[in-house]
Amino acid sequence: MAINTIIFDLGGVLIDWNPMYVYRDYFDSDEKRDYFFNHICTSDWNEEQDAGRSIVEATQLLVEKFPDWEQPIRDYYGRWTEMLRGPIHDTVELFRQLKDSGRYKIYALTNWQADLFSIALVRYNFLHWFDGRVVSGEEKTRKPFPEFYKILLDRYAVLPEECLFIDDNLRNAEAAGALGINSIHFKNAEALKEELILRHII
């Protein structure tokens, strides 16, 4: 079937978010920084907030477990806005082209803690261009779990085979593919544009 729906991930695709903007030179050694992210503020820990846990609860849990690391733990969310650099402009321009074409419904499917997502909504007008969005922190589930993708499909009456999903996380793109959703593993805006042209989307 022809594609009539585009689904965008946000962080890493349309918005530049990276903890390294805070932590790149935070510690006195790379080994200490690596330990912090591999054993304390891990990606698994962060994804629990994406799935609905409060950032206050998450922070206190780690401070109690790793009291010697209290300040860097608190800075993860205390300085979170410094990790949010801004739009990835070339991808936002592709979004604009797709929107202006009038050929597609366009949705967002994002792993994002609910309260923090409100900050992005205030900052970035293009987040209001979507025909709808599904935010993990609001739904209490997240990518790559199938039920999260199905929320979007069911809520907006979208057929998987008529969708194209774009995500910078290969795990999440593959999970979409397992549900019959066409997917692109996003690497950069230039490669995405080439892929969209190849698929006759733009």
Please, could you describe this protein's structure?
With 202 residues, the chain is of the alpha/beta class. It folds into 2 domains: 5-16 and 85-198, Rossmann fold, CATH 3.40.50.1000; 18-84, no CATH class. It has helices at 20-23, 30-40, 43-50, 55-65, 70-78, 80-83, 89-101, 114-123, 136-139, 146-155, 170-178, 189-198, and strands at residues 5-8, 15-17, 84-87, 105-110, 132-135, 163-167, 182-185. The strands form 2 sheets. Strands 5-4-1-6-7 form a 5-stranded parallel β-sheet. Strands 2-3 form a two-stranded antiparallel ribbon. Strand 4 (105-110), helix 8 (114-123) and strand 5 form a beta-alpha-beta unit. The chain is elongated and about 55 Å long.
Layout of strands and helices, then pairs:
Blueprint: E1 5-8, E2 15-17, H1 20-23, H2 30-40, H3 43-50, H4 55-65, H5 70-78, H6 80-83, E3 84-87, H7 89-101, E4 105-110, H8 114-123, E5 132-135, H9 136-139, H10 146-155, E6 163-167, H11 170-178, E7 182-185, H12 189-198
Parallel strand pairs: 1-4, 1-6, 4-5, 6-7
Antiparallel strand pairs: 2-3
